[in-house]
Amino acid sequence: MTQWDHRTVLVTGASRGIGAATAEHFASLGARVGLVARSAAPLEALAARLGSQAHAVPADLSDPAESARVVREVEQALGPVDVLVSCAGVLHRDWVEDVAVADFEESYRLGVGAAIWLTQAVLPGMRQRDFGRIVLVSSELGLIGGPTYTSYCTTKFALVGLAEVLHQEVRGSGVRACAVCPGDVRTGQLEEEHAWGPTGGVTPEKAMDPARVARDIEAAARGSSTVVVIDRPHLRLVFKLMDGPRRLRLMVVADAFKKLLRSRERPRGEG
Description:
Layout: E1 8-12, H1 17-28, E2 32-37, H2 40-50, E3 54-58, H3 64-78, E4 81-86, H4 101-129, E5 132-137, H5 150-169, E6 175-182, H6 188-196, H7 210-222, E7 227-230, H8 233-243, H9 246-256, H10 258-264
Parallel strand pairs: 1-2, 1-4, 2-3, 4-5, 5-6, 6-7
Helix pairs in contact: 1-7, 3-4, 4-5
């Protein structure tokens, strides 16, 4: 038995890379897994490999109505969503002067908008059941600004901010939220980045295995940290030193907003 036996985990961006590895890892721990991505064929192939404990829903999550539909379909097939892993996203390499409106809107709506729309759909049920985990997959480029990553960094920074907002708003409800920030991961996306030009990171063959990142995402869902860096130990230490005392900052914010937060509190078990 594991913590995730008979739990329903909804993973977006599940057709490849980190999303697919995360879905496979939760399934190996006994979870029922809802799989979401725009690419239907690889998504359905993964669902077939995972068997009856998986359900695939092809969808474009940049559309808020699609996000709501996804949650309805997954819950009808597998039961109420206990864990949301928001991994959907797209990467456009762009200098600030060259950002295209369409590229920026796609990056932000798919990466940040979908995380918000999906959270809106699953959070009421999580509150009612006094249990839920919301994991937003950001990046180390959500903590540092990298030249030529304008749209990507803007999106990934926003996910870290959203995780901190959720941390405050769900305090005491039985729901926890966090952002995970992986370094370079051996995926098709990383190969595309290197084909575009120098990245400032490691080459694909030296990057982390998606399966390792998936294990750390699952550990983050079990943990209590609001921001989790996934990388080699010395780089995690570097980011921790650069970040400063995040827990202290969260406490200061909670104190500053305590009256407002208290006005939104509801007894546990109520919708």
